[in-house]
Design brief:
173 residues; alpha/beta; Rossmann fold; six-stranded parallel sheet; 6 helices; 6 strands; globular; binds flavin mononucleotide
Length: 173
Amino acid sequence: MITIISGTNRPGSSTLKLAKYYQKQLQQKGGEAGLLSLSQLPASLITSDLYGKRSDEFLPLQDIVTQTDKFLFLIPEYNGSFPGVLKVFIDACSFPESFYEKKAALVGLSSGKYGNIRGIDHFTGICNYVHLHVLPLKIHIAAINKELDADGNLFNKDTVQFTNEQIDKFIAF
Ligand SMILES: Cc1cc2nc3c(=O)[nH]c(=O)nc-3n(C[C@H](O)[C@H](O)[C@H](O)COP(=O)(O)O)c2cc1C
């Protein structure tokens, strides 16, 4: 099972729009994927689901993670790295079985110039630690406000080409 993780809980995020675009493209290519947005996390997460605790609210999300064998992470750049809520989510998931020997593809995005290059590198280090195998083709989308049209679709030729290549490789991964 494939699950797309939209890596922020910020209301109205571009990350969630891009996640929905990836979901549509995957579906068109025969890769059915679920979508888990970090906005679905329980508000109590830092007191209810860390350090061996597990809340009823988090259980269905843990079930999705457990059943997933391929993750596609969409990760916005926050203060030069990935969002803290994404690390809290990883820390809350059962260790090591949630990610161990599974597969992932990574997409960085930002309103600035760099498309979260550094945050994707930081997150790759964590993937390595939990034995989550990362697709070598990582995508960085800078100036995301100039990349999505009113319907939430990518339209710049290069971006469409590179994201399509990543999706094809992710399905075959
Ligand atoms: C807390 C926070 C920190 C941010 N830091 C950066 C940054 O370091 N570099 C950058 O290019 N954009 C930064 N941004 C802007 C995001 O890249 C921008 O909001 C973009 O649309 C992707 O995030 P989103 O999914 O929240 O919309 C930051 C946004 C927030 C909310």
